[in-house]
């Protein structure tokens, strides 16, 4: 059976094209069929590859998607693999690149592991998002977060937030972020939310600059449903999912967020402890650490 790997590249990033070309050569030499997206094929400029439209069909039947870029490019890949289940392996060519598994210097290792299938696949929780307004319903999803944000810069957005069918609080705020553990280091982190280890099953609710006495970040059960209602006193709002998909929210809209039955599958090379990833990605100071405390023998 012919093996196939899709390579996605943010061709505007420095080094993305040469990195893609290197991977294509290594995979092709190993007899693996390489796919690229039509919008990127001209920039990459390699012959012998199979071109696909930027649609989920590009990932169907592929054993792996290798992403060259930042977290935004990986989120784009996650959108394409949403229902095919193809694992995504990110190579960071951006800034922090928290979702990426490897750096540009690791390209040879990435190629070797892809050829030998030496990687683990980790499932990350996603969220389903339902927008209800005037009797209509719109469904979407997110890997990182769903954020309800104000449209008018000079006015606060008036929101009522509820958990599991019960009202929690009314917030005048710039918005609210509903995030997964994966998204805890993205928008929710910037809004003051907690960092949550990926294996923790939970959802986060993080208000953005709320004018309220009770406006702390919340960690709720993964089986809960979070509801955000845009009150009629607003001019409207907008829903952003992973910074990629938007839905307009007129006054009276209701956004419901719950755990998705469909996880996102990420390929892992190193299985680096999450603590080490935090230290590396954020440059955290660890001088003075004396190592693991040993239990005193009795």
Strand order of the biggest β-sheet: 3-2-1-4-5-6
CATH fold topology of the largest domain: Rossmann fold
- Using the CA coordinates, give the radius of gyration: 21 Å
Mean pLDDT: 93
Per CATH, the architecture of the largest domain is 3-Layer(aba) Sandwich
Strand content: 35-45%
- Global shape: globular
Number of domains: 2
Low-confidence sequence ranges:
none
H and E order: EHEHEEHEEHEEEEEEEHEEEEEEEH
Distance between the termini: 60 Å
Give me the secondary-structure category. Answer: alpha+beta
* CATH C-level name of the largest domain: Alpha Beta
> What is the overall number of helices?
6
Give the number of DSSP strands.
20
The biggest sheet, with number of strands, parallel, antiparallel or mixed sense and barrel status, is: 6 strands, parallel
CATH H-level homologous superfamily name of the largest domain? Probable inorganic polyphosphate/atp-NAD kinase, domain 1
| Secondary structure: helix percent | 10-25%
């Amino acid at each position: 059976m012919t093996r196939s790997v899709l390579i996605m590249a943010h061709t505007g990033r420095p080094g993305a094209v040469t990195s893609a070309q290197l991977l294509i050569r290594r995979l092709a030499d190993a007899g693996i069929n390489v796919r690229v997206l039509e919008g990127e094929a001209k920039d990459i400029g390699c012959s012998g590859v199979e071109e696909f439209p930027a649609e989920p069909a590009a990932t169907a039947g592929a054993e792996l998607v290798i992403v060259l870029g930042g977290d935004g490019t990986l989120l784009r890949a996650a959108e394409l693999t949403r229902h095919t289940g193809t694992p995504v392996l990110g190579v960071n060519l951006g800034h922090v690149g928290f979702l990426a598994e490897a750096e540009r210097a690791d390209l040879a290792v990435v190629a070797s592991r892809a050829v030998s299938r030496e990687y683990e696949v980790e499932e990350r929780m996603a969220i389903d998002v339902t927008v209800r307004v005037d009797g209509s319903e719109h469904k979407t999803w997110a890997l990182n977060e769903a954020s309800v944000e104000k449209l008018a810069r000079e006015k606060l957005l008036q929101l009522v937030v509820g958990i599991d069918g019960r009202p929690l609080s009314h917030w005048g705020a710039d918005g609210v972020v509903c995030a997964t553990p994966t998204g805890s280091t993205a928008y929710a982190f910037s809004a003051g939310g907690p960092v949550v280890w990926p294996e923790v099953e939970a959802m986060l609710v993080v208000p953005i600059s709320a004018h309220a006495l009770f406006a702390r970040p919340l960690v709720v059960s993964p089986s809960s449903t979070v509801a955000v209602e845009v009150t009629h006193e607003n001019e409207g709002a907008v829903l952003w999912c992973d910074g990629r998909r938007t839905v307009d929210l007129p006054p009276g809209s209701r956004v419901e967020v719950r755990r998705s039955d469909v996880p996102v599958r990420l390929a892992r090379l190193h299985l680096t402890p999450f603590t080490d990833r935090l230290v590396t990605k954020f440059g955290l100071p660890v001088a003075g650490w004396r190592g693991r405390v040993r239990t005193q023998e009795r």
